[in-house]
Amino acid sequence: MSLFTKEMPCQELVELVTAYFDGSLSRRDRRRFRAHISGCDACTAYVEQMRLMIEATGRLTEQDIPAEAREELLAAFRGWQEGRAG
Amino acid sequence: MTEDHELVQRLREGDEAAFAELIDRYGATMLRVAQMYVRDRATAEEVVQETWLAVLNGIDRFEERSSLKTWLFRILTNRAKTRGERDGRMVPFSSLAGANPDADEPSVDPDRFFGPDSPHPGAWAAPPVGWPQDKLLERETLGVIEMAIDELPEAQREVILLRDVDGWEPMEVSYVLGITDGNQRVLLHRARSKVRAALEEYLNPEVGA
Description:
The complex is a heterodimer. Helices cover 69% and strands 0% of the residues of chain A.
């Protein structure tokens, strides 16, 4: 696939994408990672897919807390407040 | 969004609106996290309520050396764990001590790479292709992501929700869940790899299948 395939095979690279994004690869592995994607279209596409997927996942939203549970918590808050004042 | 620090001040003054804002911000996530450790929904709700009371009773002594969020969730997981153990529930993170990034859960189906006897072992045989960016934001695509996340094993699901949906930092996740930084990354990576695979199956059914 590229000159660098021997250095870091594609199959190894796909295991390191999250560590790469988090900045937790060793300097040596980060160098190997970058050298590999600079010469490999398939892995560039793979890393881009991961980026797009993470970005899209960030658009999902948490569900709201159920109204009843919310009311109970607010009631507990008032109880705490009264206990504190009294 | 109001800063945690300001909300802490307002809570100390007994401001209910500040409390409501915190519930809306963290309540649903707290319920979900609690539910991983305890037997049922009702117990999780009890643990969440106990946690808030502990937070309110401790708010005057809270020195803000950690963020309100991590303090709150750390109290929550500690309580939920204690409660779950009492009820004999297995904690999804308890078997993680030896989680090994290479252990028999490859990120991509090994059949998509050339084997050891080929001239390019480990290179793509069925390479991924580019994704149209606008397609990624379609309602239906987001539905595929949501479904893939729902199907993940519990610990992986929790970590991807905290990291990628709620936008938590790696350190916040490992601290709150009581796992190592390495373990949270392995769980996140496995989760992301599976979600990516599900998306690929949806967007490029011709690849790899």
